[in-house]
Amino acid sequence: MRDEPMPRPDPQALLDWYDRHARALPWRVGPAARLRGERPDPYRVWLSEIMLQQTTVAAVRDYFHAFTTRWPTVQALAAAQDADVMATWAGLGYYARARNLLKCARVVTDVHDGTFPDDHATLLTLPGVGPYAAAAIAAIAFDDPQTVVDGNVERVMARLFDEHTPLPAAKPILTDHAARLTPRERPGCYAQGVMDLGATICTPKRPACGLCPWRKSCAAWAEGTAAELPKKAPKKRKPTRLGIAYLARRIDGAWLLERRPDKGLLGGMLGWPGSDWGEEAPQDNPPIRAEWKTLNAEARHTFTHFHLRLTVKTALVPLDRRPLRGEFIELPDFSPADLPTVMRKAFDLAQGQ
DNA sequence: GAGTCGTGGAA
DNA sequence: TTTCCAAGACT
């Protein structure tokens, strides 16, 4: 054990580190502009925070650009067609975020007069905005000293205070630590600084403690336990599910597609008509009468909680044939880029054969 | 509290 | 190939 108490981590040291190492990101205001008093656009802060949930900066970049180019304001987004928003989100995952994004834009436009609320409690009422996002938006866009706790902050706090209680039980403890450290000055920069620290220095594996501005006040560093924190509850193994996807192309080039129901997996997204996905062999129930051919290879895809092996069947159908399910969409109204990744994999297989 | 909900990159 | 994981929210 240590014989001396650990010095309290200094928020100012973290802010100094952030000023020197902050990454330039499209939703951030640079240091020069900030010194001129410029504030980040709440719409862009909100959009980035939703996109960044469980998603890397690298994956978000192009999507953020696509959204802000096509819909520069929350009013513009609120006026968008649902299908266009879902298609533009396609490939980013967690599609409930896109559905809630549109709901939220319409609430802000219709209920809040097109202006984002600036307080945590009201932000929390917005669709898709939870405790993390509400705190992050309040801190970053409005300089409100809210406690921002994401996966990075949990990891940094677990290490600073050498907390061995496994997540998620440790969450209240770590949140309490984070709250005590949050400064009243520049809370937005501080929040982004801790998250940047977690993303670049205090990483899940092989943390670069030698570069950390908080090393001297880190209990896990003193104990040599940083790399094994935070502890997490053991994960369940993923079962494998089986399914069939039916890719019917009409002779004029139109594809037979189906809008998935809003609730559940890939909710609100376009996809191929298909069987249910279960652990038993799927029932062959084509969406249109045709001579179906089964591809040799299957589309494999892993979701959050199961593996999928998707048998792909293809057919060419005449112009006047009516489908039992779904509807034909002609090019260019349909692009494979509008599909969630698992559906695009099936399309790629069909194209390749 | 536990399960659901995507994807791609890294090791 | 498999596992882990990334600025969580919702039920």
From TrEMBL:
The keyword DNA repair applies. It catalyses: Hydrolyzes free adenine bases from 7,8-dihydro-8-oxoguanine:adenine mismatched double-stranded DNA, leaving an apurinic site. Residues 51-200 form the HhH-GPD domain. Its cofactor is [4Fe-4S] cluster. Binds 1 [4Fe-4S] cluster. GO terms for molecular function: 4 iron, 4 sulfur cluster binding; 8-oxo-7,8-dihydroguanine DNA N-glycosylase activity; adenine/guanine mispair binding; metal ion binding; oxidized purine DNA binding; purine-specific mismatch base pair DNA N-glycosylase activity. Its EC number is 3.2.2.31. Transmembrane segments: none annotated. GO terms for biological process: base-excision repair; mismatch repair. It comes from the Bacteria. The keyword Nuclease does not apply. Keywords: 4Fe-4S, DNA damage, DNA repair, Glycosidase, Hydrolase, Iron, Iron-sulfur, Metal-binding. InterPro entries: A/G_AdeGlyc_MutY, DNA_glycosylase, Endonuclease-III-like_CS2, Endonuclease3_FeS-loop_motif, Endouclease-III_FeS-bd_BS, HhH-GPD_domain, HhH_base_excis_C, MIG/MutY. Signal peptide: none annotated. Adenine glycosylase active on G-A mispairs. MutY also corrects error-prone DNA synthesis past GO lesions which are due to the oxidatively damaged form of guanine: 7,8-dihydro-8-oxoguanine (8-oxo-dGTP). Belongs to the Nth/MutY family. This is Adenine DNA glycosylase. It comes from Mameliella alba.
